[in-house]
Amino acid sequence: xxxxVGELSRLPGIGSKTAARLAHHLLxxxxxxxxxxxxxxxxxxxxxxPCSNCGSITDCDPCKYCSDPERxxxxxxxxxxxxxxxxxxRTGEFHGLYHVLMGxxxxxxGIGPAQLQIDSLMSRLDRVEEVVxxxxxxxxxxxxxxxxxxxxxxxxxxxxxxxLGMPVGGDIEYTDEVTLxxxxxxxxxx
Length: 190
Prior knowledge:
Blueprint: H1 2-9, H2 16-28, H3 31-47, E1 49-50, E2 57-58, E3 72-79, H4 85-91, E4 96-100, H5 118-122, E5 130-133, H6 139-152, E6 158-161, H7 177-185
Parallel strand pairs: 3-4, 3-5, 5-6
Antiparallel strand pairs: 1-2
Helix pairs in contact: 1-2
C-alpha cells in the first residue's frame, strides 16, 4: 500500500492525502477495473508520442493537426504543453497549426530557452504570417511570451497574444486588480 501511495503521490497535483484516498479506492474496485486502469496507463506509454513537427501527443506522425490540409498553415499557435491544445480546439475558433514549447521560461527552476522547443519553433516559420502566443497568464508564461515576441517581431511576423481579462459570469467585485487592468487594456468596441 505504501508503494502505491508513493507512486500515486508522484503524479502532478496529487499530494499524499489524495494519493492515499486513491489507493484505498483502488482496493475497493474489482480486479478487472484495476487491470483496465493499469492497461490504459501502459497503452498510453506504448502507443502515444510527441509529433515530430509540433510536439502534440499523437499516435501517428505527423499528427492530425500537422497533416490536415484544411488547416491554415500561415497561422501558428504556440502553447506551453500538449494538453493546452485541446481546450483551444474545443472553441472552434483557431484553424491554424500548433507548436508545443514543452514548458515555459523559469529562471528560478533553471528552465531557459535551451530547455524549451524554441529552436524548432524558429525553424517552422517559413510560411507563417502570424504567431499566436497562448502561454499561461502567470509570471513564467508572461516571460515566455515576451521572449518569443522579441525573437519573432524582427522576422516581420505578426505576433499576437491571447486576450486576457474577466471570465464570463465573473463579478467585478471579486476580480483581482491585474485581471481588471488586463480587461480594461483589452477592451473592445461594442
